[in-house]
Design goal:
Blueprint lengths: L1 H35 L5 E4 L3 E4 L4 E7 L5 E7 L6 E4 L6 E7 L1 H4 L9 H13 L6 E7 L5 H11 L7 E6 L3 H4 L2 H4 L5 H4 L4 E2 L6 E2 L4 H9 L4 H18 L10 H12 L2 H17 L5 E5 L7 H12 L2 E3 L1 H11 L15 H17 L7
Parallel strand pairs: 6-7, 6-8, 8-11, 11-12
Antiparallel strand pairs: 1-2, 3-4, 5-7, 9-10
Amino acid sequence: MQNSGASRSVKIAAFLFSAAIFVAAVAALDMTVSKLVPTGVNEADPKLGWRLKKNVTYRREKTTFAGRKYDVTLATDEYGTRTFGARRTAPIRILVLGDSFTGEPYASNDQMWYAALVRRLAELTGRPLDDFYVVAAASGGYGTLQTLLLSQEVKQFYTPTLLIHQFCDNDFSNNSFAQEQKSVVLNQWMQRPYLATDRETIVWHEGTLARLYRAMLYRSALFGVFDRALQVSLSSHYGGYLMIKEKDKDAYLREVRAATYDPEAIDLTRFLLAKLRRTFENVPAAMFDCPIEPTSVNSIWVDAARTAGFTPITAPSDDLLTAKARGELDLFATDGAHLSDTGNEVMGRVLAQEILSLGLIQNR
């Protein structure tokens, strides 16, 4: 009996020792990966799911779709927003809301489209550049609910004279609790808050897996590497971003189209855009789309913007898509969709001309 008890004690001790060694090894590997893999610009947030880190400076070398290398410095302030301008009390204060085309490090703060926008506006209006200030509140992958929640935070410390919402066609599905579950982009739908069907309650994907995912993604570099590898594998398996197995091409395209043009997702997006507009109802507001290949979704977002009270502007996206068709690939990042430093310059300058012609900013 004594030998049996001693044997059990030895086994328990060996198990605990092995477990401790395993945990230590995983922790050491995680620390090694965190040093080898560049830290991202986002962090977990209990209300938004994720957001840009506060008071961070992120420097990386990027490559355009044409192969040119260029340097990027993304900087955020104490609120986790990107800014451009000399003083927050400038007479023309612009609030920019958006997703990866505004918040991700595809260009430095002073090379982003909103920086090019105010430089061009200064030229066109004859105002000094110091008359303009931009707060850009965004993060890659944001849906309209996240944009709305973040804008309500920004309103507490910044009073804009012009609101610009950078929209993207995939925002429709990003806003849908049902449609997002078909996506292989786990780090969005596992992390994102959604508006419930009652249009009041905010809901999250629940369950042990979802909670574990939210707890680990921005805290473990090793988990982040695993997550990216999993999403690449799923994307390759399904032949795209939707977890809809391709049986035959026509059937697959019908399913993709149904998910893209889901009436409930579009109606919910209209509702959220109207709430976003009312948050800043006393200032002029413009909305433009990122340069995604033209589809009938474009006409849907234009109508949704106008109905919500935004002035829709299509010229920046149209011009960039035309340039892409001409082979001007240096305007785009390596993924061929997001904009490089020069692409941001084009977008900002075109947008400035449109904003001035629409009377959203006055000449001196």
